[in-house]
Amino acid sequence: MSTKRSSYEHLLAWKASYRLLLDLYGVTQRWPRHELYGLTSQVRRAGYSASANIAEGAAKKGPREFRRFLDISVGSLAELSVGLRLAKGTGILSSEDYERLRGKLRDAGRLTSALARSMRRAAATTGSPRRASQP
């Protein structure tokens, strides 16, 4: 396997989403066992989807396709927001963990949305490079 970094690893949006995912996995390990195939699984999948769609989109051929995957990532972050809110509302997630995860969620959402806007501009420009620079 090559030691060269993948095309997505330098993206701030991916880094923020991945940090969120790691924290999310740590927190959900403490959740009740009876939620393993319910809420735990759902929030983990949403967190994974947010990060994985950025990586997958970065591997695509152009900014339009990349933007489509970024839009999916933003949707996954919105889904995760609902899951975290439900976990807090039902007492599964502590207020402290909720606030920390929400902060990471906001960061990931802001960076992913900014990257999507950048890809939208790049897709609109004829003859543009594969990707615009990240904000």
Main attributes of the structure:
single chain, 135 residues, mainly alpha, de novo design (two linked rop proteins), 4 helices, 70% helix, 0% strand, elongated
Architecture overview:
The structure is a single chain. This protein is mainly alpha-helical. It has one domain (12-124): 23S rRNA-intervening sequence (de novo design (two linked rop proteins), Up-down Bundle), CATH 1.20.1440.60. The chain is 70% helix and 0% strand. The chain contains four helices and no strands. It has helices at 12-28, 39-58, 63-89, 95-124. Helix 2 runs antiparallel to helix 3. The longest helix has 30 residues, at 95-124. It is elongated, with a radius of gyration of 16 Å. Residues 128-132 have low confidence and may be disordered.
Instruction: Kindly report the name of the CATH homologous superfamily.
Output: 23S rRNA-intervening sequence
Specify the structural class. Answer: mainly alpha
Largest sheet: none
Sketch the topology as an H/E string, one letter per element.
HHHH
CATH architecture identity: Up-down Bundle
CATH topology: de novo design (two linked rop proteins)
Question: In what range is the share of β-strand residues?
Answer: under 5%
Please tally the helical runs, counting DSSP H or I stretches of 4 or more residues. Answer: 4
Nearest-angstrom radius of gyration? 16 Å
What is the CATH class designation? Answer: Mainly Alpha
- Low-confidence sequence ranges: 128-132
Give the domain tally: 1
**Shape type:** elongated
Helix content: 55-70%
